[in-house]
Amino acid sequence: MGQASIHATPPAAVPGDKVSGPWRDAWNAFRKNKTAMLGLGIIVFFVLIALLAPLIAPYGFKDQELVNRLKAPSGDHWFGTDDLGRDMFTRIIYGARISLWVGFFSVIGSIIAGTFLGVLAGFYGKWIDMLISRLFDILLAFPSILLAIAIVAILGPSLQNALYAIAIVNIPSYGRLVRAKVLSLKSEEYITAARAIGMTNTRILLTHILPNSLTPIIVQGTLGIATAIIEAAALGFLGLGAQPPDPEWGKMLSDSRQFIQKAPWTVVFPGLSIMLTVLGFNLMGDGLRDVLDPRMKN
Amino acid sequence: MNSYLLKRIMVLIPVLIGMTIIVFSIIHAIPGDPAETILGQKATEQSKQALREQLGLDKPWLQQYFNYMGDLLQGDLGTSIRTKTPIAKEIMPYLAATLELTAASMLFATIVGVNAGILSAWRQNSWFDYTAMVIALIGVSMPIFWLGLMEQLLFALKLHWLPSIGRMDQRNPVESITNLYVIDTIIAGQWGQLWTVIKHLILPSIALGTIPMAIIARMTRSSMLEVMNSDYIRTAKAKGMSQFLVVYKHALKNALIPVLTVIGLQTGALLGGAVLTETIFAWPGVGRYIFEAISSRDYPVIQTGILIIAFIFVLINLLVDLLYAAIDPRINYK
């Protein structure tokens, strides 16, 4: 067979093409999904609260008024006060910053590390794949919260270390996803074609494989933020995450536990906030999955 | 099947070895001097040296690991720094308490989850379906430690229906034989005590079982919906079989296969969640045992506790895989 030269002619740009496209279509489908939009609404609400915290919060989150200890919700203190007389509403608002920050950045960390390892394993195969896949198996052999506890027990309790721990324990879920995607893409004809025209591995990875692995990562990442927020709150609750006086929701719950009967509002509001935020990310993640990756359903 | 079992166990060996390396490394990964971290800054050099010798930290790393593995294989799980008791002996009652709690939680999650899923699919788009699925959605988003606190607030502190903490009435302790109190009280024929034990189990097992319940309900629903649309169900309906029999006898059998996997995986996940539930309900299980060890920097207990839970987790996953292969003839594991 003679050598064939490949001349790829890009299709001529259609005027107004920007209006339609895979992302645009996805957004249109997403918009029709009511529960997903509700999730997005909840997330936007908490993000706004977090960003505007200094403007919205009526008090400082460290401000103590010892005369007003454990006061029930009122006009002055919408969500009541805690055992040090701090305004619960203010602390919940600032708490949104911490939870979203940990949720978002731990997931970004897991995605970066997971993608790197997943690509290495899937693309280069052989012993690298063996090694990385076994590492994932081992990490997945621990219940995630327990592994996070172990990591914090080593590094010492702090919000920063809780974030690292959560990022580390979730690496395998992204790594496996990317690896599987790379493996399936690798045998696609257009990758073979790209190789045939002499594209380097790095370029194939960057221009073909990674962009095509993006959708499952986005879906998993959105659901992953929900998990990460709960894990961070759990570590905070166990005293292994945020430290006082940081207004972290999980830590607020454990600090107020002993007053549950006398001042239930100190326990009700932080928990509700965790639940709502997590619900928002779960709803949005489910919606994104339906829109971006229908095959992943169930 | 046997060759599959063998292959599956062979794959597990590197995972188990990897697990021991990770757990073994916990103590070595502590930044700075582990002996000082454990004993505190005020400890004398003499006591620190004694601890290093006790934990074998003064030997080369590889030798330490092989000693550790040798001890593990002989059933020596180390000694608690705090209580100076062998962990293998100390951990048994804690382990039994956790097993009892996880079993009760899973029982709750399976019975409620599977039935809610079936009814939801059967009456698709009815108010029951919507309500059940909204509850399931909230359930998966629920921080279980908060759910536990809310249960305590409502059912123990406000309504006084159920005890808020512990496994048993302290004034009337159960004479432990297996350390599984439900079984112990049945063996002893102490029905009053059995009721007290069950009452103590209700709140923590609902807290721990809620997330798996929600996941099982969602899985059962979608799996049932898929099966209900298949030809053999249409045939069963066409020959005039009652709805109930079609759903529970024909559809459920096939729909349960993926559900079973979820049940198994969730059982493993419960072991992690147990740390939180046990802390809230002062349940004397492995989770609390590990948590207390963290507070007192009892690293051998942390290591062993985590290893045991991870080991049970892996074992459950193996069993699920095997069960899956056994009940679904379509799966070919050659």
TrEMBL record, chain A:
Q: How does it sit in the membrane?
A: Multi-pass membrane protein
Q: What is the lineage of its organism?
A: Bacteria, Bacillati, Bacillota, Bacilli, Bacillales
Its subcellular locations are: Cell membrane
Signal peptide location: none
Annotated TM spans:
38-61, 98-123, 135-156, 217-242, 263-284
Provide this UniProt record's keywords sorted from A to Z.
Cell membrane, Membrane, Transmembrane, Transmembrane helix, Transport
Check the record and name the Gene3D superfamilies matching this protein.
MetI-like
Protein known as: Peptide ABC transporter permease
Provide the primary localization: membrane
User: What range(s) does the ABC transmembrane type-1 domain occupy?
Assistant: 96-285
Q: Which Pfam families match?
A: BPD_transp_1 (PF00528), OppC_N (PF12911)
Name the family the entry cites: Belongs to the binding-protein-dependent transport system permease family.
UniProtKB/TrEMBL annotation, chain B:
Question: Where is the protein found, in the record's own terms?
Answer: Cell membrane
- What range does the record give for the signal peptide? none
Membrane association type = Multi-pass membrane protein
The ABC transmembrane type-1 domain, residue ranges: 95-324
Pfam families hit by this protein: BPD_transp_1 (PF00528), BPD_transp_1_N (PF19300)
Q: Which UniProt keywords apply?
A: Cell membrane, Membrane, Transmembrane, Transmembrane helix, Transport
Q: What is its main location?
A: membrane
Look up the domain of life of the source.
Bacteria
What InterPro entries does the database record attribute to this sequence? Answer: BPD_transp_1_N, MetI-like, MetI-like_sf
Bilayer-crossing residues are 9-30, 94-118, 130-149, 201-220, 255-281, 301-327
Question: Family per UniProt?
Answer: Belongs to the binding-protein-dependent transport system permease family.
Q: What is this protein called?
A: Peptide ABC transporter permease
Q: Which organism is it from?
A: Paenibacillus helianthi
Source taxonomy:
Bacteria, Bacillati, Bacillota, Bacilli, Bacillales
